Records
---
Amino acid sequence: MTNEEQKLGMGCSITRRDFMNGVAVTGVGLAANSLGLPALAAGADYQPVVSPAYPPLNTGLRGNLVPAIADFPDIQAGKYKAFPVANDAITEEYDLVVVGGGISGLSAALFYQRGLGPEQKILVIDNNDDFGGHAKRNEFKIGDKTFISYGGTMGIATPFPYSYMAKSVLQELGIKVSRSSELTNHILETKYKLGTGLFFDKETFGEDRMVLGYGRRGMSDFFTKTPLNPKAQADLIRINGKNPDYMPGMTEAQKVEKLKRMSYKDFLANYAKVDPQVMVFMKNTSGRNNKFIDTMPAYEAGTHGSAGFNGLGLKFEEQYSEGSFTFHFPDGNASVARLLISKIVPTAFAQQPQNMDTIVNAKLDYSALDKADNPIRVRLSAPVVRVMLEGTAEKSTGVKIAYNKDGKLQAVRAKWVVMACYNRLLPDLIPELPIVQKKALLNNVKVPMMYTNVVIKNWTSFQKLGVSRVTCPGMYYPSIGIDTGNLVGGYQAVGDPTEPINIHLNKSPNHPGLPNRKDQNLAGQKELLTMTFSDHELIIRKQFQRVLGPAGFNAADDILAITVNRWPYGYAYTYDTLNDPDMPEEQRPHVIGRARFGRITIANTDSGAAAFTNTAMDEANRAVEEIWLTQGLR
Ligand SMILES: Cc1cc2nc3c(=O)[nH]c(=O)nc-3n(C[C@H](O)[C@H](O)[C@H](O)COP(=O)(O)OP(=O)(O)OC[C@H]3O[C@@H](n4cnc5c(N)ncnc54)[C@H](O)[C@@H]3O)c2cc1C
């Protein structure tokens, strides 16, 4: 360990352990996976909390857990092609098995039971230690306070364009998105007057400099304080103000067509003619589905209200409104997943019914999820390795599902299966799928993502700087911000500045610069799959020290806990006008890929080519409807 690493606290965990409840693990690395393969090593220094009975309390490397995905390479290499469990060893039988316990899988179980009644035997199998998929709750017990945060999907958009079905699920779960403004915590702006700062780092911009007042001062006042070169400053002021028409002589239709086929970066360089340093300043800017400026269609940037377009005389039409992402539970959409659990396994909660106000603090008994007498069972830490029809697609009598649990390959039998897991894995989980369908499924190259939570001892450094959020355009994490939570259920994350607080960080690890979006996503997935927890910890400590150190922050002392939710398999792949050919919907790969295969139907947001809560529910509904249609029940 270098001196610098030691100074940053890479070797000192004692203080942190004193602060934290739960079981501190003293060994090196996270638990080995169920096959006994070594998990990615966490740093010898870090002592993640491991709480098998209550997974949200686990810290360290989370998201796509190492043991949950350790079987993927073997599945892809065909290791389980011959069904790996003997027929006479299969004793459990279900009406429906759902593979994948994200919002889509949990919704599928709810819909099936709601349609056919509680006598239906249903099993949801998931590879992670917690249900919810991307809807993941992170908890930190610091003294007598529990911080709750989101490790993945956060917001529920205003229920437009929610389908009738998705709206009715929210209603059934007791969620009123319209209460958003009542529940948003504004204390940092109203009481502490904190704003946003921009931190320019030396490696990218020539010097470390914090510039305050972004969004509060005029653009001109703000950008002239930055270390950007004078031409870049002037260009940023220009494109953020009233722009001239950069595409004179073209009709509206010609402009739209051109903007759809060029990247935002090309628009800025070739039409707005900005200084190359503007592109450096914007290198961490990501748009819908985390596309960077070189893969984001210029027209899409325009629909987001990005800088540079207001002189073109175009009315940018939003394809759909992403609505109000200001409404979110403190644990994001994990509360949606928990509410779904309260419907399908009500005995897991001591009290019933649950609603949006009670769910945040409701105690959940994970040991109740997979009880033999539950009409719906939820089995966790059980990666499915093979799904096989019994009989042909036309005349199948059932389906066998093999999974890996507690280091042992096991299997169950079902009349029907909904695959609500990653669609790109389906060609290897079900090698009998038609070749055209397999090819289509491989199109779904998921977007790598990372949501990190860092609990710190106090936030006096933020207060001193006058910021609640710092944007870092050149650094690994593009922003560092206080997680104010949300006041739903009486939750109150923010106390006095001398008290601990959770800091939330987002990162899009896809690699700008590579030729297309899928290559960028794959490179980001690889990066996330190879980084150890120590790698993450060091990056985090360095960035916190650089940005907050001048205001008294000491990474060695002030960092109490870290949870890195890494999602190599994040957002579903979505199409856009720059990277994908135009074609009728029914010819799109996700539609071909999600076709029913005998007694197996396919859900997950991947099958809807849109990464939203409502899509997860809608695709679950379609997959269940397909079963009923086949049975003549619709
Ligand atoms: C970081 C992040 C932030 C997001 N933010 C938002 C947001 O604010 N709002 C929004 O609407 N959407 C957001 N999304 C999109 C999110 O993907 C969807 O809204 C939705 O939650 C996806 O649900 P799903 O059930 O389709 O997929 P998932 O949540 O991915 O669930 C699939 C499940 O299948 C499991 N699985 C995979 N393979 C196997 C296997 N072999 N065996 C068993 N189980 C398996 C996975 O581990 C997972 O638990 C976000 C996504 C991410 C990653």
---
Amino acid sequence: MILKLLIGIVIVYVLYKIVSGWNAIAAPSGKNLSPAGEDLVEDPICHTYVPVSDACRLSRAGKTLYFCSRKCLDTFADEQREP
Ligand SMILES: [Zn+2]
């Protein structure tokens, strides 16, 4: 019977809409997250954002600074040494 088939299609369509609506609500919306959901940190030298796990770390005055590369870390260390 054609009517039963149409009702079935409508039910499937409505269920699909509800499920995709839930996914949109459940999706993370943090702007400071990388695609993997990892926190990004700003390099104070070149101002690029790098994932925490990929960053070079330097502890300074109780704070941890993050750099995109060893080169930026060295640049920062050189700047600190100057009077
Ligand atoms: Zn850098």
---
Amino acid sequence: MQAIPVSVETHLAGGLPSLSIVGMPETAVRESKDRVRAAILNSGFDFPARRITVNLAPADLPKHGGRFDLPIALGVLAASGQINPDCLSGIEFIGELALGGELRAVPGALPSAIAAQQLDHALVVPSANRQEAGLAEKCRIHAYASLLALCNDLISTEPLDCVTTTCAQLNSHESAVLDLADVRGQHQARRALEVVAAGAHNLLLVGPPGTGKSMLASRLPGILPPLSLEQALETASIASISRGGLDITKWRQRPYRAPHHTASGVALVGGGSQPKPGEVSLAHNGILFLDELPEFPRHVLDVLREPLENGEITISRAGNQADFPARIQMVAAMNPCLCGYYGDTREACRCAPEQIARYQSRISGPLLDRVDVQIAVQRVEYAQLRSDAAPGECSADVRERVMQANQIQQQRAGKSNAHLSAKEVEEFCELGEAQHEWIAQALDKLNLSARAIHRTLKVARTVADLAGATNIGEAHLREAMSYRSTLREQYRPR
Ligand SMILES: Nc1ncnc2c1ncn2[C@@H]1O[C@H](COP(=O)(O)OP(=O)(O)OP(=O)(O)O)[C@@H](O)[C@H]1O
Ligand SMILES: [Mg+2]
Ligand SMILES: [Zn+2]
């Protein structure tokens, strides 16, 4: 996530013509010498017939990828007197070279631009990275299509042309999102969706097949408050260094990642010999939707415990360790049992109590403890599904209330309720004596952990915010507590 400045030093000496690169280059960087040689020749420059040593400093940092091609080529040109070294000062360069001298896009252009801006340097990027780098609005970005075009500008006395992509220009790409109006009935589930949207809480939808769980979850993005600029840049930086790269048209939208349960552990949580972010990090500041939750491998679900608690994920692989941000809102859906119909109003469940218990235990207690809002999604009656029945409330109206409640939270604590620390919970979720007593009673029934109590208080705070109430009342507590009892009470195998 952090782009570390690397100095490229070039030395020409007598001896047999050769080019060696030192400073922990990995394969792609070692191969750079062949691309650089061809690109320099094909751009009409001379490739010096000397013994060339290129040093990438700091020496103990492994260097990956093709991004060093351009600075290495410029180093060779400067060392052999074909361009003036002075014109390179105050500018950072990244870019991969094609054999013909064209510049190819590299991953990580946005983090590089942010780092260059912190150094108060300009940044030269390949044309294909122009928009992405331009998201770092305060950085001076220059984009070029080829080594030759860049060198022509460096040699001329004119200052380089600056790219002026502003974030605002790229803002307008709100894609059409699914609307809540399509969901009929399901008043409780819709309410739960509104609560989690307002406070960034985690959500679990439990119910028989075909009741609209996946449908509801996919409509959550449409009612969430917008990303702040800072959050959008963080999320875009992660996408920028990921395998898939950044989709520039979506950078202002909250991420919504819905990995399939057959996806590999590395794809989900991140990893690899050169650690890359996984789905959990790509969902940073947004939603990670896990449909058919019990089908996910146990070890993957258990890794989620860390990011759900502290908003970060640590990936350790043989000698390499990386921390990626992963402040996610987890939304999950599941059937209550293997056949799917336990607790259904019509269809009888064919599972034995032990089978139901075994199925539900695929989701560990610690994970369930982190899910603040658990809601049963029951069968809707046909009268509500008929095409002439009234449609549900539309997303725009719900979003209005969500944004209002979230604004209260931002003003109070500078963050959504779900992200309040234990100390902040004490400060902002103050209760009266009657409420303390009420909680004590409810606890006897549900046996909640200390974490669950704190989390329930945060949900109650959100419910109160939605109601515009300054203090948490008993009704708010009752609603928050009810979201804890779905699997513990309603769907308990018996
Ligand atoms: N409440 C509803 N209002 C309108 N349509 C619905 C509703 N519930 C289900 N449907 C219809 O049924 C389809 C299936 O719903 P969905 O995929 O959300 O079910 P599910 O609860 O996720 O089931 P499963 O447990 O099998 O995954 C929807 O695409 C929609 O056409
Ligand atoms: Mg489904
Ligand atoms: Zn069953």
